[in-house]
Design goal:
This is ABC-2 family transporter. By secondary structure, this protein is mostly helical. The chain contains 14 helices and no strands. Helix 10 packs antiparallel against helix 11 and helix 11 runs antiparallel to helix 12 (206-232). The radius of gyration is 21 Å and the shape is elongated.
């Protein structure tokens, strides 16, 4: 049976160490700043400005290929662009935020212990392999999810305050967005972090771990970007089905990572 107290102690220890690492914490604020404030503000204030549509990569093609009937009737061109971008186009970025944040933090999980010369003491603690891997995963997942949820609240307030008067009232969020933020964000973050923690245990330096982490996260990012916008075009039930499938994948990946975790191998590679 898993000892929750030991897992919580490991998480608190790592959070204290991460809080002292400015190189790891500062980049965590840049990504939400761009996606949550800068881009939506520019879209709402500038609307259908051709220069803006050309500047944001893929935005013009997204608007041109938007399916008929997914936006409210009677919207002007500017209103349609604002609604489509805020409700649909920005969705993948809110799944990218936890993945990127978790990748920055998780890449230093075991390799960070090696560089601080604390890995041997950690591996010889009473923590089981499952507790150790779960603790290292949650160290990154919890802040990544909380940061994304906080970003979502700011985004919701911002787009309704700035866009509400243009679109005729509060228009965000939708129920599908609620499922994506509350359910899919933790599941996607957990999946990416499990993979990165597994790589960190086999790396010899922080640079090596971060480089390997990006190679692992890139397919996850591609999947997120490719599917998230299309996912929003369906109803809540489809989003929940996707979430259920992702939950199964998360469990399988976690079990595999724990099964392949070898303390002796980590110690011999110090």
């Amino acid at each position: 049976m898993m000892n929750r107290q030991r897992v919580r102690a490991l998480i608190r220890k790592d959070w204290r160490e991460l809080s002292r690492n400015k190189q790891a914490t500062v980049p965590l604020l840049v990504l939400p700043l761009v996606f949550v404030i800068i881009i939506p503000t520019a879209i709402i204030l500038l609307g259908n400005n051709p220069a803006l549509l050309a500047t944001v990569n893929g935005l013009q093609a997204f608007i041109d290929n938007l399916p008929v009937g997914i936006t409210p009737d009677g919207y002007s061109t500017r209103q349609l662009i604002i609604y489509a971008v805020i409700v649909y186009f920005m969705a993948p970025f809110f799944l990218l935020i936890p993945v990127m944040v978790a990748s920055i933090m998780a890449s230093s999980s075991f390799v960070g212990e090696k560089e601080r010369r604390t890995i041997e003491g950690l591996l010889y603690t009473p923590l089981t392999d499952r507790e150790l891997v779960l603790g290292k995963v949650l160290v990154s997942v919890v802040p990544a999810v909380l940061l994304t949820w906080g970003s979502f609240l700011i985004y919701t307030l911002l787009v309704n305050v700035l866009g509400g008067p243009i679109l005729g009232g509060m228009f965000f969020p939708t129920w599908t967005w609620a499922v994506i933020i509350i359910v899919l964000v933790p599941l996607v973050s957990f999946l990416a972090t499990c993979l990165i923690v597994a790589v960190s245990g086999r790396s010899t330096s922080m640079q090596d771990a971060q480089g390997s982490a990006m190679l692992i996260v890139l397919p996850v990012i591609a999947l997120v970007v490719g599917q998230a916008t299309g996912l929003l075009l369906f109803d809540v039930s489809v989003a929940l089905i996707v979430a259920a499938a992702l939950l199964v994948v998360d469990v399988v990946v976690f079990v595999c990572v724990v099964g392949r975790f070898q303390r002796e191998r980590i110690v011999t590679r110090l």
